Amino acid sequence: DGTGYPEGLKGDSIPLSARIVALADTYDAITSSRCYKEAIPKDEAEQLILQEKNRQFDPDLVRCFMSVKNDFWRIHEENREGENL
What we know:
It contains four helices and no strands. By secondary structure, it is mainly alpha-helical. The longest helix has 16 residues, at 16-31. The protein starts with 15 loop residues before the first helix and ends in a 7-residue tail after the last helix.
């Protein structure tokens, strides 16, 4: 929606690559444990992303994410910190 983005860019004015990375990075951050927080469960993370559709996240990308959310989770689980390193 343009809040929090440099120069108030919003919608298609934000590069597609930035919109994709914003969603993927948020998903990774909220589903991963950190020294200062516990991971949010997969289903809750998906609901948080849905709630931010049209505000923080491109609605088309959220629809795409929801259609491949199980792939996101699989990749997340395969690459958890400390594993496969």
